[in-house]
Recover the amino acids of this structure.
């Protein structure tokens, strides 16, 4: 077996001329994969390179309060105050390069696997995962650094697309429309190649058919394509539709990688730096009504404040799980006016999250809601169920973009409704290495 001599990625160190600009990374050494295990190793490197950006996103929302006494607060306070334009030099920068490092591995697989290996179910699975990982990395970049997709803003700035190994190409952001076209194309190609319906526990950080459907459902949800989002979610649930029942003794947290509803346990959504510098906000705690079992399972009182029990170790990594799909189907149907279907999936989730008496009261109240009220109820349930899993910022961005006020170290800053800062500015280091990002 040939030795893999890839040593990593480094940022370009010199200024870039107008005719020779790079994304901001260059490979050092060469990848020479020759066997299935080599290509699986490259794919594993793509997964492990994926950044923990969603943990930082929680600081931008109404979910957390900054703990000023924490030694990590200096690195997170400007994130908490939405100071992306001129942050303190000690501030942790939002991930950018790490996404393209992950993409680099997938490009290596996609461009060389057919030359090195004959076709097989294993080869198809690895290649399918590569396409989907490339799509997911670009999708997350869009969620961070671009506007929400709509038919009226397809010409707006999207993100640089990396689909080949070419150090001489310029990485000018594509339009939003073209960026999403690439995501959708990669999703279609990857999904067609997958041979594994559902990954076993411990390997469920990898893409499977179930995870591909879940990803498709989220992409269409964020694009406002309600019917497509519902249909993709239903395909994922056709493989496994289980939910964790918090009424059951010794039940696992729903975002535990071994839970019955986990689909893909990839992303670190609650890293130590964020956990140690924040408490749960009153705005989040007050969202849980009496009889909601999640308040006692998701959070723990520490002194006079509450902290999260949903993260802190790799077993709570999460990208997709069934509760998210139930809520996607409920939201999509509510927006389409299919009230009975929306209530069906909302009720199914609540039955597993509330005590029996509280569930009865919830179901009775929900049955009398108008279309608008039911949609609000579903979005509230997303806030409660998916708390601190990195999706709240995206939900705020794609819906009402509400006013949020944060106070820290004597400063009170307000994110106004529809504030431009709902689209995060590219990190300055990335701009310095690639001024084309601002075009």
């Amino acid at each position: 077996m040939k030795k893999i001599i890839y040593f990593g990625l480094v940022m370009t160190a010199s200024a870039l001329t107008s005719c020779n600009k790079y994304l901001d990374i260059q490979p050092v050494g060469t990848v020479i994969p020759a066997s299935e295990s080599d290509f699986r190793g490259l794919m594993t490197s793509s997964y492990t390179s994926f950044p923990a950006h969603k943990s930082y996103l929680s600081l931008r929302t109404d979910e957390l309060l900054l703990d000023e006494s924490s030694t990590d607060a200096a690195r997170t306070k400007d994130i908490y105050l939405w100071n992306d334009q001129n942050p303190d030099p000690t501030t942790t920068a939002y991930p950018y390069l790490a996404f393209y490092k992950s993409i680099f591995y997938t490009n290596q697989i996609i461009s060389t696997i057919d030359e090195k290996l004959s076709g097989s179910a294993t080869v198809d699975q690895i290649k399918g995962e590569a396409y989907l990982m490339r799509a997911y990395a670009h999708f997350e970049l869009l969620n961070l650094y671009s506007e929400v997709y709509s038919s009226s803003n397809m010409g707006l700035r999207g993100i640089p697309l990396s689909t080949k190994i070419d150090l001489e190409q310029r990485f000018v952001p594509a339009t939003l429309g073209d960026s999403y076209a690439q995501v959708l194309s990669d999703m279609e190609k990857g999904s067609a190649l997958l041979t594994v319906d559902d990954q076993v526990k411990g390997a469920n950080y990898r893409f499977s058919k179930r995870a591909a459907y879940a990803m498709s459902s989220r992409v269409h949800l964020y694009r406002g394509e309600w019917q497509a989002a519902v249909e993709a979610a239903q395909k994922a649930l056709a493989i496994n539709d289980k939910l964790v029942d918090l009424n059951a003794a010794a039940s696992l947290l729903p975002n535990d990688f071994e839970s019955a509803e986990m689909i893909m346990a990839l992303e670190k959504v609650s890293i130590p730096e964020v956990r140690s510098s924040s408490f749960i906000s009153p705005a989040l705690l007050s969202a849980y009504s009496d009889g909601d079992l999640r308040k006692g399972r998701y959070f723990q009182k520490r002194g006079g404040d509450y902290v999260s029990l949903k993260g802190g170790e790799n077993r709570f990594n999460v990208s997709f799980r069934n509760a998210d799909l139930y809520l996607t189907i409920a939201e999509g149907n509510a927006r389409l006016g299919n009230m009975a279907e929306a209530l069906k999936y909302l009720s199914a989730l609540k039955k597993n999250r509330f005590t029996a008496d509280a569930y009865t009261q919830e179901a009775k109240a929900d049955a009398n809601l108008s279309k608008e009220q039911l949609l609000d109820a579903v979005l509230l349930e997303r806030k409660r169920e998916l708390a601190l899993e990195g999706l709240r910022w995206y939900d705020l961005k794609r819906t009402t973009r509400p006013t949020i006020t944060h106070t820290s170290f004597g400063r009170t800053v307000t994110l106004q409704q529809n504030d431009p800062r709902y689209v995060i500015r590219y990190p300055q280091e990335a701009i310095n290495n690639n001024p084309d990002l601002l075009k």
User: Anything to note?
Assistant: Residues 335 and 425 are 31 Å apart (CA to CA).
